[in-house]
Amino acid sequence: MYYQHIITIEPGQRSGKPCIRGMRITVYDILEYLAGGMAEAEILEDFSELTLEDIKACLRGCLKSPVFYEKHVFQALSVNERSRVLDY
Questions:
Q1: How do residues 24-34 score in pLDDT, each as one tens digit?
Q2: Which residues contact 64 (CB under 8 A, 6 or more apart)?
Q3: Distance from C-alpha of 63 to C-alpha of 12, rounded to nearest angstrom
């Protein structure tokens, strides 16, 4: 799976934070939900416009580009949330 076509950054949207497919849902939002204990199914139920591939792209992006995600996403998560996402 390639995540580059799913994770988008647009300067005028959500202050330039990485978003999912140009929507106003950020990668940080998804990682925060997962870190908070939400299951993928619960996220998909709450956000019908998302797909399982979108969630996987958020996680895969963290693994493929940790420096980018540290700069744009992880700095906003608490230490406990970071470890939960990485354990996911």
A1: 999 889 988 98
A2: 3
A3: 26
